[in-house]
Amino acid sequence: MSAEAMARQAGRPRDPGVEASILAAVQDLLIESGYAGTTIGAVAERARCGRSAIYRRWETKAELVVAAVGALQVAAEVPDTGTLRGDLVAAAMHFANADDRTASVLASILSEIGRDDELRDVAYRVVGGPPVAALTAVIERWIDEGQVRANAPVALIAGLVPTAAFGSVSLRRRALEPDAVVQMVDEVVLPALR
To answer: Which among 66, 75, 71 has a CA at the least distance from the CA of 110?
Structure first.
């Protein structure tokens, strides 16, 4: 028997229900108690599991919290609608798809990001980075097509919608409305690219 097969047999397999319970407990605690009140002990108690079950899956509180936020997120994809405007609107709509629970959970970590470097780094990598990368890819593709000026400040422009979205979530605990996303693309993003 190979070492890999032996390793798979050792111990009991992880129960996916435990992971779901842990992530739901984190989300509930973030809404009720904020980031500071979301402790590993409180999560373990709420999820009815041991702390070791949590630490086997996530090494730090920041990773755990970001995983809980990530579980509520829709994957960011690079659209290909055939038009620059269509692609920008489709990519930017990622920021209009959050329900009230998602917005409340996200708001609780956004308020803490300025004080916790690890949380900021993990949150950007898992939550903020992928939709910005999708917007960046759209802009770069249309630069290559000659529809966007070659010297456009891609990173700056790709960050406009996410900045507005995170501001809305932080201040209002609500995602951007779809109409606001379309208006921002039409009146801010597109003019900045041409």
So the answer is: 66
The runs of H, that is alpha helices, within 38-60 are: 40-47, 51-57
Measure CA 138 to chain center. 19
Q: Which of 59-68, 98-107, 155-164 has the lowest mean pLDDT?
A: 98-107
* CB < 8 Å & 24+ apart, contacts of 159-167: 159/132, 160/184, 160/188, 160/189, 160/192, 161/92, 161/95, 161/135, 161/185, 161/189, 162/95, 162/128, 162/131, 162/132, 162/135, 164/95, 165/95, 165/96, 166/106, 166/110, 166/128
Are the CB atoms for 65 and 59 separated by under 8 Å?
no
Question: Which residues, including other chains, have CB under 8 Å from residue 149's CB and lie 6 or more apart?
Answer: 143, 193, 194
> What span, in angstroms and rounded, lies between the C-alpha atoms of 70 and 23?
10
CA angle (148 as vertex; 146, 151 as ends), nearest 5: 105
Give the pLDDT confidence score for residue 148 in this predicted structure. Answer: 95
